[in-house]
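Here we describe the complex-level prediction in full. Unlike the single-chain runs in Section 2.1, the two entities below were treated as one system.
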Amino acid sequence: MPAVIETDRLTKRYGASRGIENVSLQVERGEVFGFLGPNGAGKTTTIRTLLDFLRPTSGSARLFGLDSQRDSVAIRARVGNLPGDFAYDPRLSGRELLEFFARLRGLPGTGRAQLLAERLEADLERQLGALSHGNRQKIGLIQALFHTPELLTFDEPTSGLDPLMQEEFLAIVAEEREQGRTVFLSSHELDEVERVCDRVGIIRDGKLIAVEHVAELTGRAFRHVAVEFSEPVDPLEFARLAGVTHVHADGRKLTFRATGAVDAVVKAAARHTVIELELTRPSLEEVFLSYYGKDAP
Amino acid sequence: MTTATAGSVRDGVRTPARSRAVLAALMRRGLRDHRRAPLIWGGSLGAFSGLIALLYPSIEDPLREAVEGYPEGLKEAFGIGELDTAAAYVHAEMFSLIVPLAVAFFAIRCSAKATVGAEEKNYLDLVLATPLRRELLVAGTLAVTAVSAALILLVVGALTWIGGVAAGTDLSLGSVAAGIASVWPLALFAAALSLVGAGLLHRDATVTGSASGVLVGMYVIDVVGKLADPVEPLRAVSAFKYYGAAMQDGLDATGFAVLTGAALLLAVVGAALFARRDVLH
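The structure predicted for the assembly as a whole is:
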């Protein structure tokens, strides 16, 4: 069974400008893959190249084992896409838009659109131009989902949605995964990515710099360490240790970050009387920021 | 979850029946978008043209005297014959320049809006995320433009004929039909120019401006070519050489076929270019 998405050194340049550079990744069937990066990092370019809106400068992409350029029509029959900036003729109602897309897809009707509209509390009868950004985004989500595609590509899907609807969206994504469908979720909402994604890819300046399981990414990253001693200690004792940064002393309490093995930290602490020792994993957001900070790889 | 080979999947979304259904969906959508065009474009051009026909009897005699004094070259350049019939007068006033250029401009706008205009507004990302071949999008655009232009011309023709009949002129239905029929392939040609532009450029205004500029340039070449012998051979590349004066001389079948053929050829080129380029927005 081929990977649902497979790219091999996929590169897209806009003249002299950078788009994406040698992006190689695999997304398996039934996986929710988060694609992280700030604006302009190359997330949207990647999706648009996968869907053949943009032609690669070099490298290749295969979806469902099919060539992204030669077989793009067949691929798009199996994909639902929500673009980053969802927009369509403001004179159309949501229902008219869905009926049009159903006809373009050769479907007899609008499938589960009504059900999705009820879940997302979307108004299908109003013109798109009369809807708020959030309510228009709901129509965008429905048009991506209504034909029950095998692969969903979402570019900033919760933009403009209120917290309740964000929850509903995450529930829908989880259900899609349970039913064996694949989701490629581009976002900079780290909280939602952490909650719903199996793996994440981090893209920076057009280059894929990490692909990890969410748990591994946060698990292998630095730890927040907080130690309370019986009496104040010299923070330099810990600042000198390899992998220790951000040392801060507050009376008898010392906080810092420790990367890698914490054996040296524990041994250094053991030279004093420890009242309390706490090690916590960072959030995905902190890990993400570490990739973009000055110490980033 | 089903599995299929690349070939079978490709074939499944490219059958003639499927293409026809997609084309029908695009046309239905496009014609709905332009449903007011026959009323607005056809109504305004038709009202003007009908008024010209209506006025003809009251200015017939002074007009004949005035035209007799025009230089022959000027009359030939602007297709002004002896203006001794309502058909000749309506052609000279409306169908030698205003109606063909206006309907051609509509065709350019209609085609640019559905392709590069949709790209600029981010609509294409949604449409092209469906299993739609870009060539079909171009074909649908041309078909919508062709039908909309025909409806506009029907309204123009109807109002012109009504004006002529109301004034008691000899303007026949046949003359009017020939006049509007000769504008249609020119509009198709203009739409195809726009589609070639959409295959090369990414801005609606640039495509509209370029296609309009080419068309106006062709008109100038045709006019100058009629006046200056050294320029005359260049008229062969001007669409207006094949346009003629159907309202007074009857429909030139060869000119009609040449313009229609050139339009289809350009549309094929436009579709190929559009299918191969990036969709940027």
